[in-house]
Amino acid sequence: MGSLAFGADEAAERFKRANDDYSAIMVKALADRLAEAARSRRVRSAALWMKIQMSTMLSLPERIV
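^ thats the sequence. predicted structure below, dont judge the formating
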């Protein structure tokens, strides 16, 4: 399981070497959640940008309807 958070895999590996499996799992889970939140934010931003672009393409009579 690879995560997009920088350093998360290295931190998890350090915890594993210290026999702290719980912390290793938590670091990976948190990194995955942060990566998913970032992806979700980018999708919402792209959707909003597309909505704005589409609305500016419409002429005034089309906007009224």
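The helical segments are 8-17, 21-57, 60-64.
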